[in-house]
Amino acid sequence: MKSAMKTTLFKRPPPPFFLVLYLFSTLISLSLSSSVYAQRGTGDLGLIIERKTGSVQVLETSNNTLLARIKGLGDLSHASIVYSRDERFAYVFGRDGQLTKIDMLEQKIAAQIKQSGNSIGGAISQDGRLVAVSNYVPGGVKVFDADTLTLVADIPATYGSNGKRSKVVGLVDVPGQKFAFSLWDAGEMWVADFSNPKKPKIQKFKNIGKNPYDALITPDGRYYIAGLFGEDGMAMLDLWHTEKGVKRILPNYGKGEKKLPVYKMPHLEGWTVAGNRAFVPAVGRHEVLVIDTTTWKETGRIKVHGQPIFVMARPDGRNVWVNFAHPNNDTLQIIDTETLKIIKELKPGKAVLHMEFEPRGEELWTSVRGEDRVDVYNTSTFERVKTLPATKPSGIFFTVRAHKVGL
Amino acid sequence: MKSAMKTTLFKRPPPPFFLVLYLFSTLISLSLSSSVYAQRGTGDLGLIIERKTGSVQVLETSNNTLLARIKGLGDLSHASIVYSRDERFAYVFGRDGQLTKIDMLEQKIAAQIKQSGNSIGGAISQDGRLVAVSNYVPGGVKVFDADTLTLVADIPATYGSNGKRSKVVGLVDVPGQKFAFSLWDAGEMWVADFSNPKKPKIQKFKNIGKNPYDALITPDGRYYIAGLFGEDGMAMLDLWHTEKGVKRILPNYGKGEKKLPVYKMPHLEGWTVAGNRAFVPAVGRHEVLVIDTTTWKETGRIKVHGQPIFVMARPDGRNVWVNFAHPNNDTLQIIDTETLKIIKELKPGKAVLHMEFEPRGEELWTSVRGEDRVDVYNTSTFERVKTLPATKPSGIFFTVRAHKVGL
């Protein structure tokens, strides 16, 4: 049989048209089969931001491997990411106003727009239909259709009597198809209800404090809290009771009267709420603060290795992991949330910038920018189980965020 | 050019070998392209159990549609489902000892085994590598490789001095690569550590109370609580402090001295922990109990329409939705968790069996078995936004469970 086929193949040259057809079909089959092999679930995917090269790497946490690199995302300083509700697409918010939609299954850019001159972060609506970006220049929030990235609404952050526009920070999604954000120049908080996306309703809260620089929303979506750069204390809005207005909490939270040298204002997204307590990076001090979230009062302080940047709870709330500002940024410390003691210290290497827990908490990924590496730790044994190459990695974001308020 | 090709095609009959090759390639291309069209994210998928026909339907929540029906799953009374960490595969635990692994992307059965004569529920390990099933006949827990469904460990629930085996109930995953379960006949709780899957370490707690019938684990994975059929009160194990042993809580929880007619013991998985409070179906009474989870004492009771079955919190914790036992099972009630008042009552139809919130809580799906329907409600407006056909639907399970302890 085999020799008969050989005979057919070589004895008589085939008509060129059929040969071309055959080759073409084979080519299509091959290219299709590569797509078929890429067919996979998306619940274990994530992205690593490579700031310097304007690229991201696609990762998966089931076998801890890197799947692809996607380039051309512009300036990714302070870039952040949210995910589509099906966990297939990522929205990358660049510093230069670029908004890029990435298809993680096809490992390519699905859509990209330059939506402003300068932007900082964004959010996806509760229903996953709207993507919002907070802009510095021109100051305001733009809201896009999550499918197509076409503009749905433009909210200039105009304040005062002369039509000035404020920089916008701390943009988060709020249950009930809303977004909350803060106005750096104006000292205001706004809540925009997009139940009717063509006609957003905006509620404004004025005089919340001087220069809100970042904000967070608690995991249940109830409390929106902004840090103030211009004074101590924080501004808090109870979103279940907006009629009560914005209140001041934690009067000593901030740079304080001594005006400590602050190497880096801590990220407020790094606030960790576990049960009744929030674990919070102090500003300028080598301390993690413990806050009772029923009273919003400080109940304890934990001495740590440096100025904390991210204070992140393992999903079961039993430990929190802390990284630090320069010059102490080669270290991670792990705190037991019952005893408030440091139970482990790790030295991953130069410039440990970001951490992300796998959804059920068994492993943690961390970016070690100065070593061009991403490391994976077992969170029970604290052993490093994997190390992977990345170019000046910073943020790490997993698709589980698609399912969570405020992430 | 076109006519030249035509000439080539029809003037001279092609050699049969190349024609076959061409057709074969085309066939492959077509079959591959159908797979390619099925490529999609898996974060918005779910399954509906159709008990009577031994089938499930695959659904997606982005557009609220049904994608496929998969048959041949055996007896699905009281069936439950867990998901693989990538949210592509579902493990369906049948009543007749069948364990079926479903590939939701290819919409087919990926693997199936009959692992016992009679089983009730199962769990997936923290790392997603192990699937455990709790069995009545023969009594015990079997643990399988999540990829292949090959047996990894067999734990007969042997108790007492004569080698009897107990029925096993209330099997859940526990952070730290553990499983916890309860022994109906023995009145024991066991915690099995699978850090080394070939050599599980088992910790046994005896005399926990008479006939534990079901159990739950709190969302943080800390407290494992079993309901007792044979006496009032519940048995609680603090998994952070197993050295303290099992304690009795809620001494009045149960059928009580009056021996009320209980139409259906409430599902303990339906316990809802929101902040510091648990909202719990009373047994036999038309009440939802409010429990302080810092003291595990009852702090309030809410009068409701019937004997509650599932009491489920919207992911933001602001409302809880309640369904009821026969003969009041045509109704849903919604409670405001601040005021503890019923703010809405819905009448979906005959036999409302199960509810599942979309991950960020904007919609809720409910199965109306008596009407062969699944309904989708907007959780802000309480309007029904979609209704879909299903054959005697019962449980509804979304892939977000992959990312959560105890689900």
Describe the protein's topology.
2 copies of one chain form a homodimer.
Chain A: H1 2-11, H2 16-38, E1 45-50, E2 55-60, E3 65-70, E4 80-83, E5 89-93, E6 98-103, E7 108-114, E8 118-124, E9 130-137, E10 140-145, E11 151-156, E12 158-159, E13 164-165, E14 168-174, E15 178-183, E16 188-193, E17 201-205, E18 212-217, E19 223-228, E20 234-238, E21 246-249, E22 272-274, E23 277-281, E24 287-292, E25 297-303, E26 308-313, E27 319-324, E28 332-336, E29 342-346, E30 352-357, E31 363-368, E32 373-378, E33 384-389, E34 393-398
What does it look like?
2 copies of one chain form a homodimer. Chain A is mainly beta. Helix content of chain A is 8%, strand content 46%. Chain A is built from 2 helices and 34 strands. In chain A, strand 30 (352-357) and strand 31 form a beta hairpin. Mean pLDDT of chain A is 90; it is low at 1-11 and 29-37. At the A-B interface, helix 1 and helix 2 of A face helix 1 and helix 2 of B.
Uncertain runs of chain A are: 1-11, 29-37
What is the oligomeric state here?
A: homodimer
Q: Most extensive interface, residues per chain?
A: A-B, 70 and 69 residues
Gyration radius of chain A, in Å: 24 Å
Number of strands of chain A: 34
Helix content range of chain A = under 10%
Distance between the termini of chain A: 62 Å
Spatial strand arrangement across the major sheet of chain A: 3-2-1-34
Overall pLDDT of chain A, averaged?
Answer: 90
Described by the principal axes of the CA atoms, the overall outline of chain A is globular
The helix count of chain A comes to: 2
Largest sheet of chain A: 4 strands, antiparallel
Alpha-beta content class of chain A: mainly beta
Percentage beta strand of chain A: over 45%
